[in-house]
Amino acid sequence: MNIENLLSNKKVLFSMEVFPPKKAGSVETVYKSIYGLRSLAPDFISVTYGAGGSTTQREKTVEIASLIKSEYAIEPVCHLTCIGATKQEIREKLSDMKKNGITNVLALRGDMSPEGSRGNDFAHSSDLAGFIHEEDPEFHIMGACYPEKHPAAASMDEDIKNLHIKIDAGVSHLITQLFFDNENFYAFMDKLHKEGIDVPVEAGIMPVTNKGQIERMVTMCGATIPPKMQSLIDKFGDDNDCMKKAGIDYAIEQIDELLAYGVRGIHLYSMNQVDTTKEITEAVMPLINHINNN
Ligand code: FAD
């Protein structure tokens, strides 16, 4: 079922994100992860464009998304970034997606790299969303949003003004950057509501399973570590098994609270980790099913 239809049929969506392999030739490990995730029956699985801030293996995104659809009958979403790309390149990507029956795209700007070319065709994700919408209105266009504001935005007000532009350009569904403090998400949702932004917003949740990973993530996206998470890291960070358990428990609690608040969707950054994703999904699914069935 197309995601547009899912949104009208379900009160809460549950989705997951996977990334392509970082090294050439290791796509089988990603397929193995997806094989493990399939039985969790997420509403959709999104596939990043590049992995962990790297721009390599981008050509694998459509291939992996296509397998998710054809082998496991799960709706895929292709992430697509535009910075440095030409209109013709984007046109070819969209055509490749359509040939593979993929009509859901997460339209992103991409990170600015000092060495990479910015190109002339696209400056912001709103330019990409507008282009996709004009090229083919059949695409369900999703976008990113930032409960703690995008690191480059001068203020939250400016970021939300730009979010309006993105939505006017054709984005009809948002996924948040990862966050660890639900209070930031609630404050963000209040602001969106006041500004008249009412498209569905899925909360992006990343389980912290080791100390190194959180340090990298915080540097990359600037998420605040609340005191409760910090004390878990201080206490268990040097013991991998304990940190993993504490991180999984934290993510489950975070999701339970978001569900009670009335979130429209949970997007789990799976990091291609089947065991962790399975444990979290099995713990939160009874609440999601309850909400969707009542
Ligand atoms: P934009 O929406 O363009 O926003 C970037 C900055 O520009 C913000 O400060 C915003 O306020 C400002 N801005 C936006 N529109 C305008 C406008 N019209 N005029 C003036 N200013 C404007 N990166 C990847 O490389 N591959 C991925 O697969 C990937 N997946 C992601 C998935 C999610 C859910 C998220 C949250 C991020 C993802 N990223 C990915 C990272 C993303 O590319 C970076 O966060 C990037 O820095 C910004 O992308 P964006 O689409 O939010 O940009």
Walk me through this protein's architecture.
The chain is an alpha/beta fold. 49% of the residues lie in helices and 14% in strands. The protein has eleven helices and eight strands. Helix 2 (27-38) runs parallel beside helix 3. The longest helix is centred in the last third of the chain and has 22 residues, at 240-261. The protein is globular, with a radius of gyration of 18 Å. The structure holds flavin-adenine dinucleotide. Flavin-adenine dinucleotide binds next to strand 3, strand 4, helix 5 and helix 6.
Spatial strand sequence of the major β-sheet: 1-2-3-4-5-6-7-8
Identify the bound ligands. flavin-adenine dinucleotide
Secondary-structure element string: HEHEHEHEHEHEHEHHHEH
- Percent of sequence in beta strands: 5-15%
Any chance you could write out the topology, listing elements then pairs?
Elements: H1 3-9, E1 13-18, H2 27-38, E2 44-47, H3 60-72, E3 75-81, H4 87-99, E4 104-108, H5 125-135, E5 140-145, H6 156-168, E6 173-176, H7 182-194, E7 201-205, H8 211-221, H9 227-236, H10 240-261, E8 265-269, H11 274-293
Parallel strand pairs: 1-2, 1-8, 2-3, 3-4, 4-5, 5-6, 6-7, 7-8
Helix pairs in contact: 2-3, 2-11, 5-6, 9-10, 10-11
The structure holds flavin-adenine dinucleotide (FAD).
